[in-house]
Amino acid sequence: MPPVPGTTKAVGMVPDELKFEPKSKGLATPRKKKPKELAVITECCTGCAGSPACVEYCPVEDCMFWVPDEDNPPFGRIAIDPILCIGCKKCLSKGPDGCFLDGCPWDAIVMVDTAEVEKEVGPMAI
After folding, report:
1. Does residue 90 contact residue 59 with C-beta atoms inside 8 Å?
2. How are beta strands 76-80 and 64-68 bridged, if at all?
3. In sequence order, what E strands does 56-97 have?
4. String of b and e for 114-125 (b: at least 16 CB within 10 Å)?
5. Residue 31 · residue 12 · CB < 8 Å
6. Could you tell me if 13 and 121 are in contact, meaning their C-beta atoms sit under 8 angstroms apart?
7. E-strand spans in the chain?
8. Do 84 and 35 meet the contact criterion of CB atoms below 8 Å apart?
9. For residue range 62-119, what is the model confidence (pLDDT) as tens digits?
10. What are the start-end ranges of the H helices in the chain?
11. Beta carbons of 116 and 90 less than 8 angstroms apart
């Protein structure tokens, strides 16, 4: 979804040139308030062979993205830009009706208190 004319695209913590496909699509406007919790990807992420379900559920443009494993191509993992995350928990989705998916198959996504994330990345304005 392209940005609406007259609005600015949300600027994340991770530069766009370091975000590879697949990337989340959706809202491109900056978030309006700081969420209480943010999604964090753990070291358990396998990238689901380049077809991660979590990215499809994220409603924010470029919030979730592929990070290639430079030592082991074509493997990689998913990362989340904490400045863009709205804390909606949709990446923890149970999947579409009738499917067997029960969230991340590797339990690699956790919701973490925003204050804890800020200890790692620094204070976030919104």
Report:
1. yes
2. antiparallel
3. 64-68, 76-80
4. beebeeeeeebe
5. no
6. yes
7. 20-23, 37-41, 64-68, 76-80, 109-113
8. no
9. 999 999 999 988 899 999 999 999 999 988 876 566 666 667 888 899 999 999 999 9
10. 53-57, 114-121
11. no
- What b/e sequence results for 98-110 when a residue is b if at least 16 CB atoms lie within 10 Å of its CB, and e otherwise? eeeeebbeeebbe
* pTM for the predicted model, two decimal places: 0.85
Say which amino acid occupies 101: L
Residue type, 14: V
Whose structure tokens read 């991660």?
A: 52
Q: Which domains does the chain have, with CATH numbers?
A: 16-121 (3.30.70.20)
Judge whether 3 and 10 are in contact, CB under 8 Å: no
What the block records as the tokens of 4 is: 């609406």
Enter the tokens of residue 50: 């380049």
